[in-house]
Amino acid sequence: MRPLIAGNWKMNGLGSEGIRLARAVCEGLGQGYTHVDVLLCPPFTLIERVARAVAGSAVAVGGQDCHPKTSGAHTGDVSAPMLKDAGATWVILGHSERRADHGETNALVRAKAEAALAAGLTPIVCVGETLAERDAGRAEAVVEAQLAGSLPEGFAAAQGVVAYEPVWAIGTGRTPSEADIGAMHAAIRARLAARFGAGGQGVRILYGGSVKAANAKPILAVPEVGGALVGGASLHAEEFLAIVAAAPVALA
Ligand code: PEP
């Protein structure tokens, strides 16, 4: 399995700065990181331009959300085929900011993941507990319920990706211990194997939450960590490239 390092730009980036960032990532990668899959997820408005800027490089482009329907009267929404049409091949779904800001349920995330698969996009489905849930000893139960409710049937066969992102670690500078990351990733792997059999072993499980150049290497070396979903640090080419450089050559 190849590690995946994905940058989630969130609601950041106007035209010229986004293109500059995408180009700097491509140039920094050069020919040197053929063992890592690298993905940039800009806001909708930049997908087409970033896709053009990275064309011919090893960098892929993804969306940050999609609607479960392919088209229709859904003002302000964007469908999976529209993302694909703009040049995306991936899409992040069920990010905790969408679950919190837009009331996204597991059932809705699952419907979006089905739409993504139908459009030929690879979904990255995010799961993760709040601090109150962790403090109450419910972290694994919460994540297992999110997995059960959010992942559609064809997920493993289509090589969908799960991102474990503890809500309390996102954008806070706080990260769980490596032991806690390892325990949660092992629990996620067990759920994936129980549900999808052998296919579940091939699903990459990313860690996300305050990953930066300074902490990437030990986090990416934790067993069952198949890469990183990077928010804030992905807005700085050098920082993001250093995280890519910290990815192991092959996953255990
Ligand atoms: C994210 O939002 O997916 C994320 C991991 O953010 P940050 O790296 O900024 O914590």
Please characterize this protein's 3D structure.
The structure is a single chain. The protein is an alpha/beta fold. The protein has one domain (4-11, 18-25, 36-66, 78-169, 199-246): TIM Barrel (Alpha-Beta Barrel). It is built from 11 helices and 8 strands. The chain has helices at 15-29, 44-54, 80-86, 96-101, 106-119, 131-135, 139-150, 178-196, 198-201, 213-220, 237-245, and strands spanning 4-8, 37-41, 59-63, 90-93, 122-127, 161-164, 205-208, 227-230. The protein has an 8-stranded parallel beta barrel with strand order 1-2-3-4-5-6-7-8, surrounded by 8 helices. Helix 1 packs parallel to helix 2 (44-54), helix 7 (139-150) runs parallel beside helix 8 (178-196) and helix 10 (213-220) packs parallel to helix 11 (237-245). It is globular. Residues 8, 165, 170-171, 208-211, 229-233 line the site of phosphoenolpyruvate (PEP).
In round numbers, the mean pLDDT is 96
**Poorly predicted ranges (pLDDT <50, ≥5 residues)?**
none
CATH class category label:
Alpha Beta
Per CATH, the superfamily is Aldolase class I
Largest sheet: 8 strands, parallel, barrel
Instruction: Enumerate the strands of the largest sheet in spatial order, edge to edge or round the barrel.
Output: 1-2-3-4-5-6-7-8
Number of strands: 8
Q: Rg from C-alpha positions?
A: 17 Å
List the helices and strands in order.
EHEHEHEHHEHHEHHEHEH
Structural class determined from secondary elements: alpha/beta
End-to-end CA span: 8 Å
| CATH topology heading | TIM Barrel
- Tell me the number of structural domains: 1
In the CATH hierarchy, the architecture is Alpha-Beta Barrel
